[in-house]
Amino acid sequence: MDKRVLTVQDVSCVGQCSLTVALPVISACGVETAVLPSAVLSTHTGGFTGYTFRDLTADIPAIAQHWQSAHLRFDAVYTGYLGSGGQIAHVRHIMDTLLVSGGARIVDPAMADNGRLYPGFDALYVEKMKTLAFSADILLPNITEAALLTGMDCRREYDEAYIRSLTGALHEKGAGTVVLTGVSYEPETTGVVVSGREFFGYYRHARLARNCHGTGDLFASAFTGLLCRGYEPFPAAQAAAEFVLACIRRTEPEHWYGVRFEPVLYTLAAKAAGIDLPE
Ligand code: PXL
């Protein structure tokens, strides 16, 4: 059955992140993608200064009410960067009322990386995000976000015991499957952990010397698209990670503000459709 996903995140008009990534990527997977913009920014906040920011929280209740009265329902709701803490209760209400029975709550807590909160977020936002994150069927944090959500320390160097304690604490608080990104036990490699109630898997791949902005959004969007095409979480995470790696390889070093995913998108579309491309 064809699926319809609702994704809630900002429009960064320029910057190859959030909705400008989620919409093409999930659509390329063959999945209908409805959008709820959480905010409109002229650019993302990672490296640009002087960006505009319009919070769209006030528009959300009427939009949700219209969908309710038009009997629109979603097979999955996937959230990313949200405009304000006040929006989180609205998003939870949308999940409670507009998901089909058994529909998936997919939450990327998109609020921090490299040990730091993104500009504009504070401890109160983290508290509110906990309510959404701990109700997720699938939670896609990086290590910084997982540490903030669990109150554990955010380590730069760690072993598998630390990673298992992070994912274990997230499960204990209510999160379903945890897809933890940026897990690196040695300098040359990095990868993604998928932890379910009875499953723990690690997909490791090369760590490229470059650090591109927006790879988390690209990964979560590809993962969501593949999941909606029937992939199980671990193969979806593996294929999404391979896709992001190919996109980073395709991105010129001077293209600092985002990942050049567009020329590589056809490979993800083929994967989602079960088509083997020639090497
Ligand atoms: O990539 C996450 C993200 C999304 N949206 C905005 C951001 C960021 C990260 O910095 O600034 C506006």
Describe the structure.
- With 279 residues, the protein is α/β, with parallel strands linked by helices.
- Helices cover 38% and strands 24% of the residues.
- The protein is built from 9 helices and 11 strands.
- The strands form 2 sheets. The protein has a 9-stranded mixed β-sheet, sandwiched between helices.
Class derived from helix and strand content: alpha/beta
Number of strands: 11
Could you state the oligomeric state of the chains shown? single chain
Share of helix, binned: 25-40%
Based on CA inertia axes, which overall geometry fits? globular
Q: Strand order within the widest sheet?
A: 3-2-1-4-5-8-9-10-11
Please state roughly what percent of the residues sit in beta strands, choosing from under 5%, 5-15%, 15-25%, 25-35%, 35-45% or over 45%.
15-25%
Alpha-carbon distance between the two ends: 30 Å
What ligand species are in this complex? 3-hydroxy-5-(hydroxymethyl)-2-methylisonicotinaldehyde
The major beta sheet can be summarized as: 9 strands, mixed
Radius of gyration: 17 Å
- Mean pLDDT, to the nearest integer, reads 97
Number of continuous helical runs: 9
Q: Which consecutive residue ranges, at least 5 long each, have pLDDT under 50? A: none
Return the string of H and E elements: EHEEHEHEEEHEHHEEEHHH
